[in-house]
Amino acid sequence: MRLKLDKRETPEIQKAFLAANILIVVAFSLIFSRLWYLQILNGEYFKGLSENNRIRIQEIAAPRGTLFDRNGVPLVNSFPSFDVSIYRQDVPDMKALIPVLTRVLSLDPLRLRARLEGARGIPPHQPLKIKTDIPRRELAAVETRRMDLPGVVVNVVIRRNYPYKNLASHLIGYLGEVSEHELGMEEFVNHKLGYLVGKYGIEQKFELELMGESGGRQIEVNALGQKIRVLGQVEPSPGNSVHLTLDLELQKAAEKAMAGKQGAVVVMNPQNGDILAMASKPDFDPNLFARGISPDNWKSILDNPARPLQNRAIQGQYPPGSIFKILVAMAGLEEKLITPETTFQCTGSYPFGNREYQCWKKEGHGQVNLRKALVESCDIYFYQLGMRLGVNRIAKYASAAGLGTPTGFPLGLEKTGLVPTSSWKMKRFGVPWQGGENLSIAIGQGYYLATPLQIACTLSALFNGGKYYQPRIVQGVRAPDGEVRREYPPLVLRNILISPETIEFVREALWEAVHSPAGTGGRAKVEGFNIAGKTGTSQVIQRKEGKPEPIPAELQDHAWFACFAPAFSPEIVVVVLVEHGGGGGSAAAPLAKKILETYHRRGKKDHPSPARVAVQRSVRRPDEG
């Protein structure tokens, strides 16, 4: 464009017009240059920005893989729910949005602001999840107030559901929101803030197998970030399924038996190490975590003095009590210090040093041989056998049988227990081992500690032919189409070398402990099912001599019962520990019976064998000594 100059105009006016022309040319040149830069040089870049502002990629979370029991019964399932997220780049006024959101979604304004503050490091175009699993009424409120909620979106997600609630919660575990620390770890590279990931148990251990692969949809949005239409969609790939060794019916029986008590149950297949059931009480409901646990619920769990998150089956360490007499008897026979016919006199007490050590039966058992000592759990017999063996020889057999070391439980977190020796005490306390301590350890008291799982593994190895199996909780991992991705075969960790004669003698005595009228384990007896077992009672505090005083419930003895069946071809091992339950025969054996009844009822029959017939003939009346 050029302005025409009038010749009659003065030179000053002509100069002004010329300057205006130059300015106009420069201005239009700049505009055209900018347009050329935007449309030609960087056209594709800005086209992408424009498209991204109009078109959004919305993630579709993958359904989490299912957990199955050993018979193919699902232990968890999924259900559709609704989560609310914010695209902060679409929010023109966050201060104005917060009051509306808190009213519609019944949110705490302080918690919402803290959530937004904590997400400052996250790009604003990424969705920020602010509430999960909203009820239908809140969903309706969000949908009807779309115009008042710019940048707010509702996504349908498939959420974890635990239909059996607390059942096997310590094994299955629970979910929680991925932390910023976890997001920096290699195994969580495909996760984003707001994802729920395994935090405990199988859910945590097999997170990568269970999580699946997310899909997505391409949607067109308006200026408020609201969806106009779906342009394309890629379906997610579900996670793999994990097949456990658990037996749902046995797990239910174990949970029911332990209802209202504190303690643990372990049910194992001694022939391969499969965990058929594992219950720890008290427990928790994983659904609380899957739906986003509230601070109040989380605090109530953490502050509970009964420690419901502790898996007592692998983390509870207790003196094994009279169950330990099984190993002491085997040690005495293997070291040739006694024979099955060796007898001791039990009068109800045993003097040693300046004190009297009591038998659980105040009036005594009379003349006792090894069989009777096991059947009736005579303490005096084992006091004297313990003095002959000494701490180090007892420790040798206890360690060889698997006590004092981890079992190899695949989910980890297990305690090791304790097998004391004279050198251990000197190193730990700086004082030598005392002779009287041999009496305590011979009946499973003193420094000895074991977990219920350790007792189950040891009992399995002693009576399955000597193979100490690593406990197995997962059989394998399968793809959604059923293809086997990974298998976990049984694994033998060590072999226990004890003579068959010793094993068979103790096996017969333990059968009598359940089936003889004088046996301490009679309350575990199941009609038609041959069970071998041993009761145990472990003291929490040492009782004072003289007149007994009432003991508070939290200081009562722990009750044990450990058994296997059928006695001469074991298929199942059951270990029950009731914290502060009292006597093992009265408190723990009846609980084991309930589990064994469930197993036997399903058709697991016990066939007669020559060995059993011989044992049945050997059962004597209580007064026969």
Describe the structure.
By secondary structure, the protein is an alpha+beta fold. It folds into three domains: 11-41; 56-243, Penicillin-binding protein 2a (Domain 2) (Alpha-Beta Complex); 248-281 and 312-544 and 552-624, DD-peptidase/beta-lactamase superfamily (Beta-lactamase, 3-Layer(aba) Sandwich), CATH 3.40.710. The chain contains 22 helices and 23 strands. The strands form eight sheets. Strands 12-11-23-22-21 form a five-stranded antiparallel β-sheet, with helices on both faces. A four-stranded mixed β-sheet has the order 2-10-18-19, with no helix packed on it. A three-stranded antiparallel β-sheet has the order 1-8-9. Helix 10 runs antiparallel to helix 21 and helix 14 (325-334) crosses helix 16 (379-400). The radius of gyration is 36 Å and the shape is elongated. The N and C termini lie far apart (128 Å).
What structural keywords apply?
alpha+beta; 625 residues; single chain; 5-stranded antiparallel sheet; 3 domains; Beta-lactamase; Penicillin-binding protein 2a (Domain 2); 4-stranded mixed sheet; disordered C terminus
Topology:
Layout: H1 11-41, H2 43-54, E1 55-60, E2 67-68, E3 77-86, H3 94-105, H4 109-118, E4 128-131, H5 136-144, E5 152-161, H6 169-172, E6 174-177, H7 180-183, E7 196-200, H8 201-205, H9 207-210, E8 215-221, E9 227-234, E10 241-244, H10 248-257, E11 263-268, E12 275-281, H11 287-290, H12 295-302, H13 312-315, H14 325-334, E13 343-346, E14 349-352, E15 355-358, E16 366-369, H15 370-375, H16 379-400, H17 422-429, H18 437-442, H19 452-463, E17 467-469, E18 474-478, E19 484-487, E20 492-495, H20 500-515, E21 532-538, E22 558-565, E23 572-578, H21 584-601, H22 610-618
